[in-house]
Design brief:
By secondary structure, the chain is mainly α. It contains 9 helices and no strands.
Length: 249
């Protein structure tokens, strides 16, 4: 019988809530000022990046691995680094955490337009274009995670690298696809606002990207799995997963 790691799931829930709160704070702040869209996207990306970096290297991230993204969890599960029950526990915790984080952001900040928190395509973007871009940016993110985690020298910088990647991807693609990058981030505000327009596109792109990144990495490394399932690999804290890292209890 599989063991349920409730404490670890709770860490993932809180981590995702912090990510959403940080990112939506950025969206709220840029909604108060008149700036070019490019600059707004850059600032939003910075807030989401600060959120992910803060979570990954916090005690929460060191305990759960700091996935805070169902697509990332699915990719680790496909590699056999997580049990099916743990993957489900993580994904459920991430969705609940996203709703909690969005609710806190909506409660704490005086929004003029709550719909600004939603991930939506650009005005002239077709559904197919959004699907393609979201697929590519999630695919590249997961491949980057696998690559850095598998490096003995660079593993500890995985969280920082992903934070930088989020800034770049958000700045470049937010005006086209919304740069969701994360099904939980997309779903949290959508549930509270009861607006599920285009949500299937983002979910489909993220899941397909997780499978594609898994296949690409396995093929490129001739069947090698990522060394660890924690984005803070090579930092202090036990690892409870089915990986090859040395941080085992």
């Amino acid at each position: 019988m599989e063991i349920l790691h409730w404490t670890v799931y709770f860490c993932e829930l809180l981590g995702t809530a912090i990510l959403l709160l940080a990112g939506l704070l950025g969206i709220y702040l840029v909604s108060l000022v008149n700036l070019p869209d490019f600059v707004k996207s850059l600032i939003i990306g910075l807030f989401f990046a600060m959120g992910i970096i803060m979570v990954v290297y916090s005690p929460l991230g060191k305990r759960s691995g700091g996935h805070v993204n169902p697509a990332v969890t699915i990719a680790f599960w496909l590699n056999g680094l997580m049990s099916g029950i743990d993957a489900l526990g993580y994904i459920a915790a991430q969705f609940v955490g996203a709703v909690l984080g969005a609710w806190l952001a909506f409660t704490l900040f005086d929004w003029q337009n709550l719909s600004a928190a939603l991930v939506l395509p650009g005005v002239n973007s077709s559904g197919l274009l959004v699907l393609f871009i979201e697929f590519m940016i999630v695919f590249a993110m997961i491949v980057a995670i696998f690559s850095f985690i598998s490096s003995d020298k660079q593993g500890r910088f995985t969280g920082v690298v992903i934070g930088i990647y989020i800034v770049v991807a958000t700045t470049l693609f937010a005006s086209i696809s919304g740069a969701g990058l994360n099904p939980a981030r997309n779903l949290g505000p959508a549930i509270l606002l009861q607006n599920f327009d285009y949500i299937w596109i983002y979910f489909t792109a993220s899941v397909l990207a997780a499978f594609a990144a898994y296949g690409f990495f396995r093929g490129a490394t001739r069947g090698t799995r990522p060394t660890c399932s924690k984005l803070c690999y090579k930092t202090e804290g036990p690892c409870l997963f089915k990986c090859n890292c040395e941080f085992k209890p």
